[in-house]
């Protein structure tokens, strides 16, 4: 076998031998009606004859998410443009790491074994996954992955409160400040955000690609939407619009993580009452700082 960038075994500090000089990644692809996509690994592969996720070694010039999508395309013929990222979980093994990337399909495609690394690829109901002879590491991580399956992070951003949290002259141009925040939030589309920076402190090792809802009011009311950022204009009271937005998101998809970014004490209590989580502007802005100018995750 001709080895490519990132291919090869590494002797990890944990005492095991792992594939992927820069780590490895797999794609946990799911749909509501078909379940999760599993790969029956060929016998000649590492831990062959088991069921796990399509994936492989991360190249030196790509993110784990990009690697998981690329490897899945090579192994199952699911095109990258059909994949919508939702979240990822990093499994640290000492000097090596494996990233499981959770995603959904944006179009109706039919995966199939596209190279000799797979004996088969099948859609499996989540309740039946544990009935398969699973790769040991996938079996160990499956309970945590299943708990987040199908969920999305919905980030409701209080524009006025967030732009007002830093003394950068926003009061002289509130409309411009909202536009700048919108443009920075659009970076979360390709990069995602660590769970802790989004107020999800209990999800250690997780990263989320959120649906971003930016709530604007007053002089910022004319702010248009941008790729990856939906803009909601408050009809009158901005706080009420934020509460209504959070409540609507919770009602539409009750299992989603709905997070409101604000430092307003009264608003925090109101959104918690409708089932949302609260994150502070500082954590969000710090996460956005980390994406500029290079970006990526």
UniProtKB/TrEMBL annotation:
Top-level taxonomic group: Bacteria
Protein's UniProt keywords contain Hydrolase: yes
Gene3D superfamilies: Nucleoside Triphosphate Pyrophosphohydrolase
InterPro entries the UniProt entry points to: NUDIX_hydrolase-like_dom_sf, NUDIX_hydrolase_dom
Identification of the protein by name: ADP-ribose pyrophosphatase YjhB, NUDIX family
Key words of the record: Hydrolase
Any matching Pfam family: NUDIX
Molecular function in Gene Ontology: hydrolase activity
Hydrolase is among the record's keywords: yes
Cofactor: Mg(2+)
Coiled-coil region(s): none
């Amino acid at each position: 076998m001709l080895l490519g960038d990132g291919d090869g075994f590494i002797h990890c500090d944990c005492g095991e031998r792992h594939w992927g000089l820069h780590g490895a990644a797999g794609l946990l692809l799911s749909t509501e009606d078909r379940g999760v996509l599993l790969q029956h690994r060929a016998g000649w592969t590492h831990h062959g004859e088991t069921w796990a996720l399509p994936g492989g070694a991360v190249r030196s010039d790509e993110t784990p998410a990009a690697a998981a999508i690329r490897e899945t395309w090579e192994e199952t013929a699911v095109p990258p443009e059909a994949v919508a990222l939702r979240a990822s979980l990093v499994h640290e093994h000492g000097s090596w790491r494996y990233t499981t990337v959770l995603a959904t399909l944006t179009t109706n495609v039919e995966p199939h074994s596209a190279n000799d690394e797979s004996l088969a690829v099948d859609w499996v109901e989540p309740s039946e996954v544990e009935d398969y002879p699973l790769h040991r590491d996938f079996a160990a991580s499956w309970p945590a992955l299943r708990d987040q399956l199908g969920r999305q992070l919905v980030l409701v951003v209080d524009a006025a409160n967030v732009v007002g949290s830093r003394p950068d002259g926003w009061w002289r141009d509130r409309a411009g400040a909202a536009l700048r925040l919108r443009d920075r939030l659009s970076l979360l589309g390709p990069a995602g955000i660590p769970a802790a920076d989004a107020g999800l402190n209990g999800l250690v090792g997780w990263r989320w690609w959120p649906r971003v809802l930016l709530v604007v009011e007053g002089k910022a009311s004319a702010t248009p939407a941008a790729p990856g950022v939906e803009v909601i204009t408050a009809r009158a009271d901005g706080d009420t619009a934020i509460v209504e937005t959070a409540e609507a998101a919770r009602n539409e998809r009750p299992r989603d993580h709905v997070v409101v970014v604000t430092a307003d004490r009264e608003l925090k209590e109101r959104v918690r009452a409708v089932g949302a989580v609260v994150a502070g502007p500082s954590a969000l802005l710090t996460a956005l700082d980390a994406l500029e100018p290079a970006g990526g995750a």
